[in-house]
Amino acid sequence: MAECENDSDVESRISYRDYVVLKRGDVFKSVQVENKKKVVFEKQWFFLDNAVGQLFGTRFEIEAGGSLKLKAAKHSGDSLDSKEAGQDNRHIVDDGSSQKLTRDDIETLKEQGLKGQEIVQQLIDNSTTFKGKTEFAQEKYIKKKKKKYESDISILKPSTRLLAMMYHGREPGKICHLRYDTLAQILTLGNIHAGSKILVFETCAGLVLGSVMERMGGFGSVIQMYPGGGPTRAGMESFGFPSHFHETLHEFPLCKVNALLAGTLDLSEKDADSEVSGSGNGQSESTQETSAVSEKNSEPQSMEVSIDPQEEMRRVERERLREKKAQEKKVKMEEKRKKLASAAALLEGRNADGLVIASRFHPCPVLMCLLKFIAPSRPFVVYCQYREPLIECYTKLREQGGAISLRLTDSWLRHYQVLPNRTHPVLLMSGGGGYLLSGTTVAADAAKARNQHKSEEPVAKRLKLDEISSA
Amino acid sequence: MSFVEYSEIIQEGDVVIIFLGHESMMPIKVQSGAQTQTRYGVIRHSSDLIGQRFGSKVTCSKGGWVYVLHPTPELWTVNLPHRTQILYTTDIANITLMLELKPGSVVCESGTGSGSLSHSILRTIAPTGHLHTVEFHAQRAEKAMQEFKEHKVSHLVTVRNQDVCKDGFGITGIADAVFLDIPSPWEAITHAKSAMKRKGGRLCSFSPCIEQVQRTCEALLDHGFEEICTLEVLLRVHDVRAVNLPLPDFGPEEGSDDRQAEVPNTGNTSVICRTAIPPREMAGHTGYLTFATKPRD
């Protein structure tokens, strides 16, 4: 069959160094595919080497020894026969003795190499109450046992959807308890799209940053504002973006924002020095080396003999290394300075197209400060785990002006189980997913006086003549 | 101006959103020489709009003022002329995330309806993606085509006037995602599947009634879809208010000196509380969203 996606097939295959998402049922984990590296996921350990070269989305079984094996044929969901069934549970007594297989028996079966499906069949055969259960109860029982004993995992390509669900399920604290539907609102309300210039301030492990970048598709630019020493990007790396995406990503330290706003930001080499935390170490390193060299130098002097040729060689070598290190440091600092300058250049115009804030910091000062960099008629979205700080932001914005359509919202999410005659909302529900304050910037200044005068004069006459109102 | 790209200055032919006040906006098409009536007076396009910056304040003839905003799919959703019941931003946001839409995605949609979701999809998949949208109502299909042209996005979309349940989307094997908002989505699953890429894709079906959801889930299962998941999402708005809570008087405290008891402390008769309250009524239901993954063929 002629396929117009032959080139995309290369992208579709798992390679070393790829970031992937492991999936088992509703549980996800993000890992990087590395040579012979042990991966632990859902109480199992295995190696991903056999997955390399396979297509994303493939299902694997975990064999004894930790190697992955392609899941053979596509199994139909309900291949386990259950001909006999009861009508209701009036005679079923739950005394814990209905399953005849013990834990040890099951372990033995596992050791014998029985597949998950076979173990489930064994459990059914050895259950005294199975035949008495209703069909629904039988299905539920089978589903539950399958979930426990069938250890298939899928290897998927990362996406915002998978990573957002993963973080929310596994480590919500890392992402300020941002639920995935709230993240969905952020991305849409913020009108995040290709070609725009977006400011992001987040402490959500880089998940929010990554999701913004995914929606930008490598077009436009993203400037990540960061609070402390350096920007957190771990979550963003998990998206596995192609390298050209990284060229659209800039960073700028919050501690230099005031200087930038005042126009006093010093982008000369001196400033880059103080910003680099490693500079102090570098200096002490070189002084250490110098002292070591001078120590060594003092030795032959104390011997009061002409310089030993081998010693001379070593000295020259040390000298060369020291110079090389100093050169490397210089290059690094220059790079850092350049990055700072390019980020500053993007910010200076104060014409960014959007602002996204999602952090554990109090949102009010961050918002009031960063709004200064946003052009008029552009959306901004602030996420906070709690409501009160956003109420403060709302109040401050009302007082100050410059923003309209302010809305404080949160999102209510409910999952459903949909089965014939068994459709109902799922029993457990998420209690909350955080709050959002969204709005649109407008020009802070008053209307142009020029226009006011112009519209006063001819208005009366023209109203009668031509009243073309367009919709 | 375009719905998929920002610009700074208003030009002739642009569609702009006039913001009149809280929850009051209207879209207008900018034309040289034209005028628009508002409750604050007249806006003269040539002097007040063309050449002005988006986000500016515009003073109208009666002295009141409005803001002129750059259009976005979100603003369009709350301002567009309804030809059908539409999808609102809350659902649209979740659909976009769960369908994994991004620049370059190829998406199939039916029915086009009033184009609310369509505009949002176009914004997300631009500049390299494409939307194939199917609408069985001839006039609605025509109107949609017109609007896409006016909004400078027609290069990203193909509108087809046909019945998706009978004739499918008009393309096969190229979609990353399919969206269905039709009365009988289970009848379109086969076509949805064939429209999607061989390597797989995501599907979403929006239905107001649970019976529709049940039939759709059954069809999805029969066709080999995986990760079938149904959810609903609602937006709760919090109205920020400063409320005045009066403090009650319990009479003079026992054992306190007379001086304190006599002087009424006017400063403490009420407290201002900054809070947010829910509105009297809220949207309780829009529809159920069912998502699924088509695995590799």
UniProtKB/TrEMBL annotation, chain A:
PANTHER family: TRANSLATION INITIATION FACTOR EIF3-RELATED, TRNA (ADENINE(58)-N(1))-METHYLTRANSFERASE NON-CATALYTIC SUBUNIT TRM6
Subcellular location: Nucleus
Family: Belongs to the TRM6/GCD10 family.
Pfam families in the cross-refs: Gcd10p (PF04189)
GO biological process, one term: tRNA methylation
Function description: Substrate-binding subunit of tRNA (adenine-N1-)-methyltransferase, which catalyzes the formation of N1-methyladenine at position 58 (m1A58) in initiator methionyl-tRNA.
Protein species of origin: Carassius auratus
Coiled-coil residue windows: 316-343
Protein's name in the database: tRNA (adenine(58)-N(1))-methyltransferase non-catalytic subunit TRM6
Automatic annotation (TrEMBL), chain B:
Documented EC number(s): 2.1.1.220
Enzyme class: transferase
Region named Disordered: 247-270
Key word Transferase present: yes
Domain tRNA (adenine(58)-N(1))-methyltransferase catalytic subunit TRM61 C-terminal: 64-294
Keywords recorded for this protein, A-Z: Acetylation, Methyltransferase, Nucleus, S-adenosyl-L-methionine, Transferase, tRNA processing
Protein name: tRNA (adenine(58)-N(1))-methyltransferase catalytic subunit TRMT61A
Organism in which the protein naturally occurs: Carassius auratus (Goldfish)
Lineage: Eukaryota, Metazoa, Chordata, Craniata, Vertebrata
Name of the encoding gene: LOC113057195
